[in-house]
Design a protein that fits this description.
Strand order of the largest sheet: 12-11-8-6-7-14-15-23
CATH class of the largest domain: Alpha Beta
Number of helices: 20
Largest sheet: 8 strands, mixed
CATH topology of the largest domain: Rossmann fold
Distance between the termini: 13 Å
Bound molecules: adenosine-5'-monophosphate-propyl ester
Strand content: 15-25%
Length: 659
């Protein structure tokens, strides 16, 4: 076992239960507990039959499938493999043909620019399809074919969803890269996927600043990106950008030259839909591959179940499309379910802290899905901005990304939800494709701090180091014992790593990387990662990635990055750094190193603290003893100057004891 497995102990006991409010349960899609129980039992006894029914009920297939799951190539699941369908057809055309042509699919609000009223754009299902049809033609015109990879590096504007759906429409595979990643990270991802085309924008608005995305793309493509032949540039901020003749094209010019016609290309259920990079325990991000039929079944069914969606709902998930939440529960799940999705380009505190509450009031948002780190920030701002607004349109709240502490849960329930909205705490991962553990809000009590029970057709377990199922309340590793349709199919270009990371630790099961316990009611309490992956503001950051970035700085000899608890961000990154022999430490070096990490990976990976040490504590075999560093980092910040040289000789002395 890893040295940090001893962190899987839980002392949290939470007795409060929040039963579904009668008014909510009365109108819920699934409001009868006996019916829900029967569904759970049937799904548990035959998950393949359950998911096969879901695939038929939730989606339109151009060629029906005859087989549910083929697990003969384990751990590569094949779901509904002989069926054919198209994701964009399911998200758009079938709704246009069945009464939702004029229903809003996307309502987007931009960040208010220069004190003006924010721009609002509404796209009905019919209008969104027209845009996607045009965009699909643009991709084809630029030489993108079925199976080709397209990198998408956009702000949160409707074109992000349009680009994703246009790729799906022609069977191209998208790789969305969050706009906060640096040129270096963007280039690595473009090269790893072998992208032919990059779709970007001149920029996007964030906290009143124009993020100059095209400049970052130019830097990324400046050297060694051999597969990229074209760049499509959406105009958003309107600032000047360099356009490279022959390579760069304006999105709007090509869209105007295209027609709103054309059907989608049916693809086999196991055709790749997208690659999404996420951090792991090595320095190299993993390109998680998701395919078509199983993924869409999973996100459609779970979106409907967990968010109890109705045709009159206005649903707002605050995630960026650059993350899995943005793929599964901003774009694919909601649109496949025919919902109306609200999108907001900007940040919650710009131009002031009323922003989100003003949006909920003006647009009458009914379902709001966000991350615990955002909630803790709102709590810290106080209730005044919230109480000024009428949030009575809200009927259901959700959280995702990290464990939510009961205090934040109860605050969410009372202050934002007015005590009347169930809260769905949804546990899942980039690799799982969609939600696996969450309440069914019409039929079961929500419990602050736990995502509660697995969804129907999902079979998790808590196991000890030997793989044996643990009794109630004993901590252990969270695993999935049976394949599910949305599960990742491989790591792009590194299948050995896929098998090793997820299927070698607990034979026969998918290993999540999370520690958890199950209470005597069967609720799953997630206790965080058991590997060298940190969760900062709900974003996964591999410590090794940050360490590689630090040691690429010319003055750094060695670096170890650990997490410490942080009230707002959940965890914060603390970097212990030793400098090359003879390098004098100068004031400002810590800040230089933080900026260096920002440049290499992106601002989201910038360490909260950089601490210098003459040497790092190591085992005899040379492994850095992170557990000791974690303890040191967790005891609080060093007083005064953070560039004080750390005396780790005390830890060094402990090493024999720890081996
Ligand atoms: O540790 C768990 C935590 O986030 C990890 C997955 O991160 P990522 O792939 O970036 O996806 C985030 C959005 C789905 C998990 O292994 N996590 C996610 N949701 C929860 C959570 N921890 C506790 N409770 C949750 N609801």
């Amino acid at each position: 076992m890893k040295d940090n497995n001893d962190t899987i102990t839980s002392t949290l006991t939470e007795e409060r239960r929040f039963a579904p409010p009668a008014a909510f349960a009365a109108r819920a899609q699934l409001g009868d507990p006996a019916q829900a129980q029967a569904l759970r039992e049937a799904a548990a006894s035959d998950p393949v039959a359950y998911w096969s029914d879901a695939a038929r009920q939730e989606l339109r297939w151009t060629k029906p499938f005859t087989q549910g799951l083929d697990w003969s190539r384990a751990p590569h699941a094949q779901w509904f493999a002989d069926g054919e369908l198209n994701v964009s057809d399911n998200c758009l055309d079938r709704h246009c043909e069945s009464g939702r042509l004029h229903k809003a699919a996307l309502i987007w609000e931009g960040e208010p620019v220069n004190g003006n009223e924010p721009e609002v754009r509404t796209l009905t299902y019919g209008q969104l399809r027209a845009q996607v049809q045009r965009a699909a033609q643009v991709l084809t015109r630029l030489g993108v074919q079925k199976g080709d990879r397209v990198a998408i590096y956009l702000p949160l504007i409707p074109e992000a969803a349009i680009a994703m759906l246009a790729c799906a429409r022609i069977g191209a595979v998208h790789s969305v890269i969050f706009g906060g990643f640096s040129a270096e990270s963007l280039r690595d991802r473009i090269n790893d996927a072998g992208a032919k085309l990059v779709i970007t924008a001149d920029g996007g608005w964030r906290r009143g600043q124009a993020l100059r995305l095209k400049d970052v793309v130019d830097e990324a493509l400046g050297h060694r990106t051999p597969t990229v032949t074209s760049v499509l540039v959406v105009q958003r901020t309107g600032h000047d950008v360099a356009m490279s003749a022959g390579r760069d094209h304006w999105w709007h010019e090509h869209m105007e030259a295209s027609k709103a016609t054309g059907t989608s290309v049916p693809v086999p259920a196991e055709h790749p839909l997208f690659i999404l990079y996420t951090s792991g325990t090595t320095g190299k991000p993993k390109g998680i591959l998701h395919t078509t039929g199983g993924y869409l079944t999973h996100v459609t069914r779970t979106f409907k179940q967990v968010f109890d969606i109705r045709d009159d709902d206005l649903y707002w998930c605050t995630a960026d499309v650059g993350w899995i939440t943005g793929h599964s529960y901003v774009v694919y799940g909601p649109l496949s379910a025919g919902a109306t999705v609200f999108l907001y380009e900007g940040a919650p505190a710009f131009p002031d802290k009323n922003r989100f509450w003003d949006i909920i009031e003006r647009h009458r948002i009914s379902i709001f899905y966000t991350a615990p780190t955002a909630l803790r920030t709102f709590m810290a701002w106080g209730e005044a901005p919230i109480l000024k607004h009428d949030l009575s349109s809200l009927r259901l709240l959700g959280t995702v990304g990290e464990p939510i502490n009961p205090a934040a849960w109860v605050w969410y329930h009372e202050v934002i939800g007015g005590g009347r909205c169930p809260i769905v705490d949804t546990w899942w991962q980039t690799e799982t494709g969609g939600i696996l553990i969450a309440p069914l809000p019409g039929v079961q009590a929500c419990v602050p701090g736990t995502a509660t029970l697995p969804l129907p057709g999902i079979l998790p377990d808590i196991v000890g180091p030997d793989g044996a199922s643990q009794p109630a309340n004993a901590g252990g590793l969270l695993v999935l014992k049976h394949p599910w349709p949305g599960m990742a199919r491989t790591i792009w270009g590194d299948d050995a790593r896929f098998k090793d990371t997820y299927f070698s630790r607990v034979p026969g099961s998918y290993f999540t990387g999370d520690g958890a316990r199950r209470d005597s009611d069967g609720n799953f309490w997630i206790m965080g990662r058991v590997d060298d992956v940190l969760n900062v503001s709900g974003h996964r950051i591999g410590t090794m990635e940050v360490e590689s970035a630090l040691v690429s700085h010319p003055l750094v000899a060695e670096a170890a990055v650990v997490g410490r608890p942080d009230l707002l961000t959940g965890q914060a990154l603390v970097a212990f750094v030793t400098l090359n022999l003879g390098t004098p430490q100068h004031p400002g070096l810590a800040e230089d190193l933080r900026q260096h990490v920002s440049r290499e990976i992106g601002a989201l990976a910038r360490p909260a603290e950089v601490r210098f040490a003459a040497a790092l504590p190591k085992t005899r075999s040379g492994k850095i003893m992170r557990r000791l560093l974690r303890e040191l980092a967790g005891q609080g910040t060093v007083s005064g100057d953070t560039s004080t040289l750390e005396d780790l000789s005390v830890l060094e002395a402990l090493r024999t004891a720890d081996e």
